[in-house]
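Entry type: protein chain
Record version: 2
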Amino acid sequence: MSQTANPFALLAAHAPTLTRRLATPAVDEDEAEAVRLLLDAVRTWAARNLDSAKTDREARVDPRIYRSAAELGLFGLTIPSAYGGAGFSLSAAARIVEELAIFDRSVATGIGLHCGLGLRGLIRFGSEALRERFLPPLARGDSIAAFAATESEAGSHIAGVKTTGTWDGGDLLSLSGGKIYVTNGGIADLFTILARTPNLGGARRGYSILLLDREMKGLAVGAEEHKLGIRGSSTTTLAFDEVAVPVSRVIGEPGKGLDQMNEILAWGRTLMTAGCLGTARAAFTQAAAFVRERRQFGKPIGDFGLVRQKVAEMRATLLACESLVRLTTMLQSSFGSDIIWESSVAKVFASEAVWRITDTALQLHGGAGYIEETGVARLLRDCRITRIFEGANEVLRFHVAAALLGLAAELETGAPPQLSDCPPLASW
C-alpha cells in the first residue's frame, strides 16, 4: 500500500517522530525557540492593541493595527528568510495564527489569508524574478496579499470559473471577468487569481494562476461586504475589464493552475483551521471562568453536574481539535506531505468543533451570552463562516469519502487510488 496515498500508513511510519514533535509546533529547536519568543511578543502586542469588540463594531481593522503587526514580522511568517521573512514552517505559522485568533478573529483572518492563500502560490510556484520583486515588500507588510478564485457560479466547483485570460501568442494576456468574496480585497496590493487561459502552455482548456497588482488598468475593487461575522476582515468583489497581464505574471506552469490550487488551498485551509482552534480556545477559557463565578441556588454553576459535563465535552473537543491541527501541520512541515486529504479532514472537524464549543459557551452564559458586551455572541458569529469558506463542509465530506473509498479499494486490489483526481475547492 502506498504511504503517500494512505495517510494512516504515513502516520504509522513516522509515529515515534510525530510523538516527540507534536508537543512543539516547530520542525526543530531553533524554530521552536523563535516561535516561543514571537508568541510572547504577540500576546503582549495583542493585549495592548487589539480590541475585537471595536473591530466588530466598526467593521474594519484600523490600518495602524496592520502596520504595527508588520513591525512584529507577522506578514512575513511563511516567506523564506532569503526574501526578508521568518521562513516559518506551516506548523509554526499555524501556531501564531491560532494565537492571533484568540484575541481578534478578523485580524487573524487578514494576516492568515496573507500568509497562506495569498502567498503560497508565489512562494511555491512563482519564478525567481517574481519572488525577488514581490516577496520582500510582502514580508515587510508594505504590501498585503489576497487570493481570488470564487465566482458567482464557481464556489465549490472551482473548475467552473469564467474569468478568462485571452492569449494571442504574444507577451500579454487580456483578463476579463470577476471574483466575489475576496478576503483582503479592500486592503490588498497584490492578488493571486485563478483564471481560464485557453491555449496558453498548450492546454486547450487550461487554467493558470496569475499575479496581479492593484494598480493595473482595468482592475476594479468593489465595496466592502457587510457580514454576519469577522466583520473587520475585508471582503470585496474584483472586476477585470481587459486587464493586460504579462505572461511573466503566470505563477508556475501555464495551464496547470488547478493542480497548483490543491497545494495552495491545503495551506490556506490549514491556517484557517488554526484560527478555529484559537477561537475555540477563547470560548472555552471564557466559559470556564464564567461557570466558576456565576452563582445560582447558592453556589457556582460549575458545581452542577450537567454544567461540568458540558465543560468536559468542550475540553475534550478542544483537545481533539488541537491534536488534529498539530498533526496536520507536522505532516507537511516535517515530511513534505501534500496534506490535501488531511487538511480537508482537519478543516471539517475544527470548523464544526469551534461551532459546538462557542455555542456551548453561549449556553453556559445563559442570557448574558446573548448580550454583545460579553463577547461570546461575537465569537459565535465570527466562527460561523468557517463551515463555508475554504471549501464548504458538505463538499469536503464528499471528497473525503471519495478518498476513503479509494483507500478501501486499494486494500482490496493493491492499486493506489488517485487522490489528486478530485478538483480543488474554492476559498469561500
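Comment: Confidence is low (pLDDT under 50) at residues 416-427.
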